[in-house]
Design goal:
Length: about 80
């Protein structure tokens, strides 16, 4: 049931996201969003001065973080079900 409720978690976001979209999706601030893309933790590209993040790359980041969390803490993470 939880998977059905959260199935559209990222569905409302465009396939190519802005920094503001990334902030809303991860519920983080502007500085953290730029840190994630500038360090390469989340793949991004530039169109002129504008930073864009493919939604698939955000999903890869989320599932990677969840995988790491599960491996370290041995916890069950519902995000793996949501985004796959």
């Amino acid at each position: 049931m939880m998977m059905q409720e959260n199935k559209g978690l990222l569905e409302s976001f465009p396939d190519i996201m802005t920094i503001k979209d990334l902030q809303r999706a991860l519920q983080i601030g502007r500085s953290k969003a730029y840190e994630l893309v500038n360090t390469g933790e989340i793949y991004s590209f530039h169109i002129g001065n504008a930073v864009r993040v493919p939604k698939k790359c955000l999903i890869d980041y989320i599932t990677g973080q969840c995988y790491n969390l599960s491996a370290v803490d041995g916890c069950s993470n519902p995000f793996l079900e949501v985004v796959q």
